[in-house]
Amino acid sequence: MNKRNLLFGTLIILIIGIAALAELPNVKQVEKRGPIPPAPVTAVVPTNLEEVLSAIHTAFNNWSDLVAGLNQPNDYAQLYKNKFPYGSHWSRFYVFSRDDPVFPSDEQILLTSGTNPSIERYAHISADRKSRDLYLNEPSGDHWWMSEYFVDGQPANFRCSFLIHFEPAENNGTRIEIFEYQPTIWAGEKIGVSPHGLPVPTRLHDIRAVDATTIDRNDVLRMIQDAVAKQPI
């Protein structure tokens, strides 16, 4: 065997060995410092659904408003004004209505439910009871923040979207429940094979589906309650 064949054989063995290591489970300690399992996050407000929806659209960024501004002729175009301070966490989120194509279908929800069983309950709510629901989403898919998850004792980057569900309540009130859609953590890096490149082991983001958090759903619910309380009587 000449040196070229020996070198080539050694390289193949090395690649196979690295690929085998890449298939081993990532030994990282993922910890959730929040309620397990997460309980429903819900509240009843003494306000009818139309007024609740109005309050939400007033307080949150609406994707339809952004699109409408961009579609105006140049002579009439107006700079879209974000309803949250520049750089704030919630300035990245927009509200989408149920009939928007971005709103996840029940089939999508069930296919991507992963380790988040509470979202399956949302998917099984009948369509007529969800017709006025809203989707609170960060469209770039690249905004992460700290929440209830830790990896090897350090705060893990987290992201999710929110489904806001409404039900009628007594005395013309509205019951609001917040669900998390696709809660995910970025648990550092891992060795793996990229589906978009050569079949050679490389460093990849270690992205993992996780169960819903409580702190983030509480934040959304609290902002909605505050917005409803500020509505003129």
Question: Can you walk me through this structure?
Answer:
The chain has 233 residues and is of the alpha+beta class. Helix content is 29%, strand content 30%. The protein has 6 helices and 8 strands; from the N terminus they run αββααβααβββββα. It has helices at residues 3-23, 49-59, 63-70, 106-111, 118-123, 215-229, and strands spanning 30-32, 41-45, 94-97, 134-137, 145-151, 154-169, 173-193, 201-209. Strands 1, 2, 3, 4, 5, 6, 7 and 8 form an 8-stranded antiparallel β-sheet that branches. Strand 7 and strand 8 (201-209) form a beta hairpin. The longest helix is centred in the first third of the chain and has 21 residues, at 3-23. The radius of gyration is 23 Å and the shape is globular. The protein starts with a helix and ends with a helix. The model has no long low-confidence stretch (mean pLDDT 86).
Coarse structural class: alpha+beta
Our estimate of the beta-strand percent is 25-35%
Question: What is the string of SSEs from the N terminus onward?
Answer: HEEHHEHHEEEEEH
Number of strands: 8
How helical, in percent, are the residues?
Answer: 25-40%
Measure the end-to-end span: 89 Å
Helix tally?
A: 6
**What is the mean predicted local confidence, pLDDT?**
86
pLDDT < 50 runs, ≥5 residues: none
Apparent shape? globular
Largest sheet: 8 strands, antiparallel
Give Rg in angstroms.
23 Å
